[in-house]
Amino acid sequence: MKRFLFSLIIALISIAAFAQGSNQPPDKVYGKLFKDIQLLHVFADSKTFVDCTPIRNPNEIVKDYMVLGKDSILKQTLVLFVKQNFIVPVDVHSNYQTGKSEAVENHIKRLWNVLKRNPDKYVTGSSLLPLPYSYVVPGGRFREVYYWDSYFTMLGLRESNEWELIEDMIKNFSYLIQTYKHIPNGNRTYYLSRSQPPYFCLMLELLAQKKGNRVYAEYLSSLQKEYDYWMDKTAETKHVVKMPNGSVLNRYYDTDSVPRQESFREDYKLALSKYKKSDNGNETKMFSHFFRELRSGAESGWDFSSRWFADGQNMNTIQTTNIIPVDLNGLIYKMELTLAKAYLITGNKLQYNLYLRKAKARKNTLNKYCWNEKEKWYMDYNIATGKCSTELSAAGFSPFFFNIASKRQADEATKTLVNKFLKAGGIVSTLKNTGQQWDAPNGWAPLQWIVVKGLVNYNQKILARRVAQRWIKLNIDVYNRTGKLMEKYNVMDTGLKAGGGEYTSQDGFGWTNGVLLKLIALYGK
User: Angle of helix 445-457 relative to helix 461-482, nearest 10 degrees?
Assistant: First the structure.
C-alpha cells in the first residue's frame, strides 16, 4: 500500500511539473534525486537540500544520478553524491553571539549587518529567486527574505535609522509583484505557489513617514497588482469566498497541491499516516486536497496552529481553505484603504470612492461573520460549518490593530485578552497546547506588536505598556542567558524555551529584533 501511495505522490508531482514550466522548484529540477534525498533523510532538515546550490549543470547531475541510482541506492552513497555535486548551505549567523554584557540594542544593530544580504546573482539550478536590492533575512535556517517577517523587521530598522535598507526591501517586493504578480512566501522557487499575510501596504505607510505621500503614487501599480492577486483578478487562485449574504471575504489558498518541497518528507509521512487504505480510487483527489491544505496553512504564516485543524488538535485534520481568517481580512481592508489613499493622491477620485466602498463593505462583513458576541472576541469563520470557529487565537485582536472594531467591542475584547491571553511573558498565540509552534505556550513578536498597537488605538495605554514590558523583559532575560534573540518564546513559563513544530527554534531573528527595538523605543527597558 505504501508503495502505491508513494507512486501516487510522485505522479502528482510530475503533473505539477508539466504545468509550471519556468522557475521550477527543486523537485521539478532534480526529479528522482530530489525524492531520494528527502525520503532517505540525507539531511536532518528537509529545507537544507532545496537550498543547496549545484556546482555544475543540474541536467548533468541528474543524468549521472540516474545511472548511479537506477534501481535503488544506499544512503551513504547518496550522501557522497550530494557532497560531490552540491554546495550545502549553512545557517545564517547560527554561531553569532556577542558578549552578554552588551546592551541588547547594540546587539541588534550589529545583527543587521549579519542578517543583511546584498543583491543576488542568478545561479543555474539554485532555488533562490534573485533580488535586485539588499534585504534582511530572519536568520537560522531562513536564508532568504520572508514577506510578512519583513514588515516587523522594518519596525526595528526604522529605529536604527536604516531607511535606505527599508526602501531597498520595499523595492524588492515591488519587483517581485511586477515579475510574478504577487509577493511569494519567500524568494525561492518553491514558494512561488503562495504568498504570505499581505503587509506591503503597511510597509508603504512606514516609508511614507520618511519620504511623504509620494511613496503611495510611486508604488500604486504594485499595490494594485497585489490586490488583484488576492482578489483573483490576474492569478488562477481561489482566495476569494462569497459569504452567505453575497458579500466577499478572503482565505489562504496555495495554487499547488503536492508536498511542500521544503518539508517534503514531513508532508509525505503525514499523508501516509492519514490515508492508510485505498478509498475507491479517490486517492489522487484526497492527496491533492490534503497537500493544498498544508501548503495553504504555510501561506498564513501560522504554520502550524490549532486555528486550522477541524478537531482543534491534530495536524491530519487540517482544513485551512475552509477558514476565513480574521487577520487576513483585516490586512486586505487596510490594503483597500491604502489604495483609496493612493488614488486620491494621484487625483483619481473615482477609484478613491470605489476602494472606500470596498473597505466599508469588508469592515461590515468582517463584523457580521467574525465577531463572536458570546466569547467577546473576533474569531475566524468556518465556511464548511457556516459558523465561527471554536478556536480562540491572538489573531482575534487584529481588528483593533486595523481600527475595525467599535469602542464597545474593544472594551469587551480587552477583558478577554487579559483573562485568557496575557501571560507572564506577553501574549500567548492560542489557548491550546497541541505541539504546534503557533499554539500555547508560545508567543511571537508580530502578535505582541499587533496587540500593543491595537490597545493604543483604543486608548488602552496602560495595558499596552504592561503587555510590551512583559515581552521586553522576556526577550532581554533570554538574551542575558544566551547572548541571542529567538524566533519565538515560551510566554507561559519564561524559564523554558519555546518549541513545537517541524524544526527547532531558530535564533537571529529578524522580526524579534525589529519588534523589540520598537517597543524599547516606546516603553524603555
Answer: 160
Question: Residue 303 catalytic?
Answer: yes
The structure's pTM equals 0.94
Catalytic residue among 303, 327, 336, 439: 303
Residue among 167, 226, 254, 487 flagged as catalytic: 487
pLDDT tens, position by position, 141-168: 999 999 999 999 999 999 999 999 999 9
The answer to whether the CB of 505 falls within 8 A of the CB of 498 is: yes
Residue 144 known to be catalytic: no
Residue 164 CB-density burial (10 A; 0-12 exposed, 13-18 middle, 19+ buried): exposed
The total of structural domains in the chain comes to 2
Task: Tell me the three state secondary structure of residue 303.
Answer: coil
Q: Do residue 33 and residue 136 come from a single domain?
A: no
**Helix or strand or coil: residue 377?**
strand
- Residues 25 and 165 both lie in one domain: no
CATH code for position 438: 1.50.10.10
Residue 124 placed within a domain: yes
**Cβ proximity of 57 and 124 under 8 Å:** yes
Interval 346-372: pLDDT, tens: 999 999 999 999 999 999 999 999 999
**At 23, is the secondary structure helix, strand, or coil?**
coil
Least confident of 40-44, 283-287, 309-313, 333-337: 283-287
